Amino acid sequence: MSRVYLLLGSNLGNRRHILGKAVTQIQAVTGSVVRSSSIYETEPWGFNDGPDFLNQALIVETDRSPHEVLEKVLSIEEQLGRERLPGMVSRILDIDILFYDDLVMDEPDFVIPHPRLPQRRFALVPMNEIAGDYIHPVLKEPVAVLLARCRDRHRVTRYPDDGDGQ
What residue ranges define each of the domains in the chain, with the CATH number in brackets? Predict the structure, then answer.
């Protein structure tokens, strides 16, 4: 079994509900979710014209290859209403593969570890909650150190458990 580290994000619709449905589908078709972070409300990164995101990190144990995991998460995004538009835009669901075991892979449309992770607090904060001691296979630094060094100052706050997700 391999461990894949995913980041879920949503800034359209009932964000909390969408994240919950995504977790359920990931469990059904990708593997067992063995750890999940709190949900965080975060400012959009890379664009300023959208509502705030909800983000959550997951650790999933899977027997699927990286390409199979990618195929499954893209399918989940589509099933839950994701439309692929160019650039950084609002989206009903985004699922990023942050890490897959200690694999380093660089293909034209698929890079592991996620290349922009060290610059994104919205990904590092939830990842740090569930795997702060995980060593980035390229940078050779724990996630907690990457977070401490991150210069991104976009707001990342824990989302209340009793919110309605709107």
Answer: 2-113 (3.30.70.560)
pLDDT at 165 over 60: no
In angstroms, what CA-CA distances link 95 with 71, 91, 162? 11, 11, 23
List the structure tokens of 165. Answer: 């997700």
Q: Distance of alpha carbon 112 from its chain centroid, rounded?
A: 13
CA atoms 88, 94, 100, 106: torsion sign: negative
Q: Global pTM?
A: 0.91
Q: What is the pLDDT of residue 80?
A: 86
Cβ pair 97, 5 in contact under 8 A: yes
Q: What letter does residue 110 receive in the DSSP assignment?
A: E
The DSSP element (H or E) to which 81 belongs, if any, is: none
Show Cβ contacts of residue 92 under 8 Å, excluding neighbours closer than 6 positions.
10, 12, 13, 18, 80, 81, 82, 83
Whole-angstrom Cα distance, residue 114 to residue 104?
10
Cis peptide bond upstream of 115, omega within 30:
no
Burial (0-12, 13-18, 19+ Cβ within 10 Å), 112: buried
Average pLDDT over every residue of 13-37: 95
From residue 68, give the alpha-carbon distance in Å to each of 31, 75, 151. Answer: 11, 11, 33
